[in-house]
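Workshop exercise sheet. Pairs work together: one partner reads the sequence aloud, the other fills in the structure field after running the prediction. Swap roles for the next sheet.
Pair: D.N. / O.F.
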Amino acid sequence: MSRELASRAARAFDRANVPILKAHVLGAMPDSNARSSVDENERLFVEAGAIVPPYDPEALCLLLENSNSLRQNIDAYVTNIDAFGHRFEPVIDLDADDADQRIANAIYVERLAAKEAERDDPVVQAKPLVPTAAEIAARKKEVAETIRMERSRLETFFDFCCVDLSFVTLRRRTRQDIETLGNGYWEVLRNASGEIVQFVYVPGFTMRLLRLDPEPVSVDMKVKVSDLAFDAVTVPRRFRRYVQILETQVVYFKEFGDPRVLSRKTGELVPSVEELRRRDPSDGPATEILHFKLHSPRSAYGTPRWIGNLLAVLGSRQTEEINFLYFENKSVPPLALLVSGGRLSKSSIPRIEDFIENHLKGKRNFHKVLVIEAEPAQGSPEFAHSGRMRIELKPLTSAQQQDELFSSYDERNIDKVGQAFRLPRLLRGDIRDFNRSTADSALHFAEQQVFQPERDEFDFLLNRKILADMGIGFWRFRSNSPLTRDPASMTEMVTAFVKAGVLTPEEGRHLAGDVFNRDFKKIAAEWVKQPIALTLAGFQAADDPQSAMVGPTEGETSTPKERALPAEAKRLIALRDTLRRLGTEQERTEKRARLDEKVVHVPAAEFASWFEESDAA
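Structure field:
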């Protein structure tokens, strides 16, 4: 029923612009060879065994094109979720203070898992669980090299993973399909080695799902054993196939991660690619489809989040059409010319009817005036001629429509659709009744409750499927967010916290990276890992608490603390000590001068008694 409603609504949108042709044919009707493209595609989908979607995708696309409220809501999702790019975050920071401890823990967990898996191997059982310092250093060096290589692979891949468009454009198109149809699709291409090399956008309205295959397939799934290692676990999975029909061309796909070989022409399983080529040289193996969807509890397809407000979308469209057609079909003229002291002529009545039928419609006739002819009333005793006639212009604007109809109904429908997306009016292009405070609150709510959860879900899918398939273990894909924070306010806050010793310079740089959506270059110096007040005071945060108290070794003139301080910090400390010494010497000189100049007058009797008491003491 919902599918019929959506299809009926889509056809209704074009009904006003499609001429109706009536043909009267005599005799027998010949068979037509013409086929509707839409009907033919539906027939091919049924023959391919595709599951019927709950709502017609083409009808949903027409609803987007003809709705006065869907486009701005979907564009807000597309822009705020997928239009700000991405960055890569390291899983483990080797420059952190606890990096060695995390590496040691990872080695311990890996060896413990190996002992559990290899109970009969004496070599594995004899190996100690706790790693040595040399093993930790060797593993740290190996991890650092792997991190550099993986970062280079990721940047190169996502810069060129799409041939004719950017990765951001691919995400934007996919998000529009997801919010319009409830489903989005990527074709994933691999090279001869089985590595992912390219993503291809697939229009959502051309795709259909086939039923799950009855037989499960054993596949290897990567499971994280520790912070530094993955393990492959064999699990049974039931895959489904996909079919695309565009302009009556049928192409089959397999689900992402399906290791089997399928025919792209027939969708049938074949033992190998060589056997597929032997059967049909023009055929090839089916590629993989990565399916994004808004979950529906009753269908394998996704459903758009606004589908519950379908009637509001249709009602707003009908309201727009009624107001538009008023200019072409209005039937009340703005003025009437009345002639009194006479009567209508016989030719006036058909002229009035013709005027209303043919000369009031359209914007060109909006201000036409209706002229009514009259003639003297002769030959009738009831209408005795008075000897004079009167002509009067009578306005008829009170009977005309003054403004659009159903404006409150239309506004309420627009709000209903916006509520389905959970978007404030500001993000839908309506800036009425907004000030700086309410605008910031609305943007903060949308970012926290709507956009960021959608980004996290997309990032999880890419990290769990794409990056895991690529063998990336030390980096995470992270979507950028818009700059909802005021950079000036954040700068003042970070500066105040750093000066107060609440944040270290390294933590302040990390917060600045979140604000500006970029990675700042890492600084390996020790002073960035301690409060700036300690650095200016000459203290060092070292791994060994006693290192700051160790004096200079033989042949050295400075302590390890002094050697570790940056040149700028040492210069500031030396300047501070110099100022302190100058201040102390100046205070002593001034005090001595004041004592020399001070004259004390003491009576002789008091002075003698004070002198005697001092001698006795």
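Discussion prompt: The mean pLDDT is 79. What would you look at next?
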